[in-house]
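Final report, Chapter 2: Outcomes

The project's central promise was a pipeline that accepts a single protein chain and returns its three-dimensional structure in a standardized token representation, suitable for archiving and comparison. That pipeline is now operational. To close this chapter, we reproduce one record exactly as it appears in the project archive, with the input sequence first and the structure output second.
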Amino acid sequence: MMAGLPAILGGVPEQRVTLFPARQLCAAKRGRAVRLLCCALVVLTVASCDSLAAGATNRLNNASTKALPSSAAASPSPSPSPKPDPSPTVACNGIAPGFSCVMQQRIARVQKYLASAPGSIGFVVEDRATRAVYHSAKAYQDYPAASTMKLAMATDLLERNLAGNIHLTSNDMDLLYNALYTSNDNDANALWNEYEDGSFLDRIRAFGMSSARFTTNVPNWGFMYCSAADLNNLINYVIRDAPSSVRDYLVYRLRHVSAIDQQCNTVGFAGPSGRYTLAIMYELGGAGSSDAGFNYGTNKLTQIASLLFQGHYTAAPTPQASAVP
């Protein structure tokens, strides 16, 4: 977990940052591709949000040894409907109507920062309090989704389990825990092979992932494309529309991920009550097969988030390779 951020966003208190592991998105599955792909959303939360509901795990699966611990009650869950705060007096540039003038300036800085970046970057930032959304020029362009699709699969499985359409065993919940905690591909594949098929695509349409698609004849979570807009819709669905027990479980898991994977790619929200969401997809072309390309892409994502939510550049991260498949 990264250190707490300084006060940002016009008086927001120091924030805790948690990153969801989308392992090797910044390396595009070495051996499977020679280009760098970074798909990310950043999870930034504050300690003064609504609490996770007690007993949320029991509503999901009583038998799971990797279910939501009781200590989760101390962790704040993002509010489904955050309220806007007064913005400090800063000149607006009109680049992103509906956002505070501070955020408009920061979005403009990100645009300038990315203007000369190699490869292709699409990002979306949303203010859930005002429902303002900024889509970059390539926000609707499809990129290889890689491990970000694990969040969509987890959401689908948990909702179907809650509805009684499938029954996730304690072993299944262990697999789900590992798929989210260390982004373990083998465990994600085991869940996919047991419970998923091509109909997955129809179900995630309900999450707002309208352009998601398979890229192979045999459907699999690891061979899909989607856009930054799809990922932003997904995280907003989890926060705002998913059943409370599903939301609470996923929010907790997103905040408690492997230290190995925290520094690469993420999915989530920022600010008080989870006011902002951010989705980034980055494809760096042929340079992605090198460690230099991997580090470059990871740093690019870090700086985008820092500019948006801190208002300045930050130290480059030191990404680590995952120890799991």
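Archive annotation: The two ends are 21 Å apart (CA to CA).
This record, like all others produced under the grant, will remain available to the consortium after the project formally closes.
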